[in-house]
Amino acid sequence: EQAQKGGYEHFMLKEIYEQPKALQNTITPRVKNGLPNFSSDNVPDELLKNAKAIHITACGTAMHAGLVGKSVMERLARVPVNVDIASEFRYRDPLVNEGDLVIIISQSGETADTLAALRLAKNKGAKTLAIVNVVGSSIAREADCVVYTHAGVEIAVASTKAYMVQLSVLHLLAVRLGLLKGMIDEAEGKRLVSLLGAVGETLEQMLSDTSLVQAAAQHIVQAPDIFFIGRGRDYYLSMEGALKLKEISYIHCEAYAAGELKHGTLSLITDGVPVIALAVEPKLFEKTISNIKEVKARGAYVVAVLSKGVMLDDQTADTSIHLPECDEFTQPFLTAAILQLLAYYTAKGKGLDIDKPRNLAKSVTVE
Ligand code: G6P
């Protein structure tokens, strides 16, 4: 096992560091003439172009990737995208019609609820597209078409690199969809694809110095409760950050849409309660900052995740972690990696069994 870890203390850390390569392996085969192209995956353009509505369904981390996918697809293609937890989708008689596209996301391709959701979507006459990591898995075999992510084998129960490459496929699909729906032009498509092509390198540079994240982890390691806040895409990323941290550190973590704080969660913010605040998405920055000030005024210990160059005064945040220089389009990849590292180093600080957290399984093949 030590040999398999390649010098890393845990598989989770190894897998975090494998992300730049996994991104490259997943993105490169889907770029032709500078634009996204899924012909080698046998995804017909008509499937995307004719989709009246899109539904994304998955479990856990894969569902969180779907939420980020929703935000980018709706923005670039102006198509409505619903995201559902597979165990909810399968039992609520979802409004899925013929002509809709259902995107199923799964690392293992074997999750029982996700497989059932796929079968239901097919029964309702929808077209199905699976984003799967494990070749030949049940979901990959049963879906109308499959886009394989090339994360390689993921061993740590807490998913990192599989999520990262799911994000990359969803971004590529969003650009293709935007082009096919006539919502973006070719020049914009090429610009976005070239940004995606470069994100692995930016991530690699970021991973070469994680000292600020490690320092932030030391400040939150003793906390019984931690809150994550953000708006829009940052909220969706917060949900993944909270899941990652709770599953391996056993600290109670909750993600909250920053604008919802005053409708409940604010009552839980007292002296020293850590709040991980994502204020990355440019158009929502000012709004989130005002929410950060609200929690700070109640004594929260604020760790702010910010775009490069953004400076907050001491009254606003206790610690700031900055993304490297990047475009708005690729910010989620870098934010996600910061949150993975924060979870990892917090759990490490507690001396826990990071790769095999209690009560959890890598693949949930029973309901
Ligand atoms: C389990 C794993 C998670 C994963 C989820 C969905 O809960 O521990 O990491 O996100 O299942 O798995 P899938 O293989 O369908 O992506």
Automatic annotation (TrEMBL):
Location(s) in or outside the cell: Cytoplasm
Keywords (A to Z) from UniProt: Aminotransferase, Cytoplasm, Glutamine amidotransferase, Repeat, Transferase
CC per GO annotation: cytosol
Reactions catalysed, as given in the entry: D-fructose 6-phosphate + L-glutamine = D-glucosamine 6-phosphate + L-glutamate
EC numbers: 2.6.1.16
Active site (UniProt): 362 (for fru-6p isomerization activity)
Coiled-coil region: none
Predominant cellular place of this UniProt entry's protein: cytoplasm
All copies of domain SIS, residue ranges: 44-183, 216-357
Task performed by this protein: Catalyzes the first step in hexosamine metabolism, converting fructose-6P into glucosamine-6P using glutamine as a nitrogen source.
UniProt-recorded name of the protein: Glutamine--fructose-6-phosphate aminotransferase [isomerizing]
Biological source species: Acetanaerobacterium elongatum
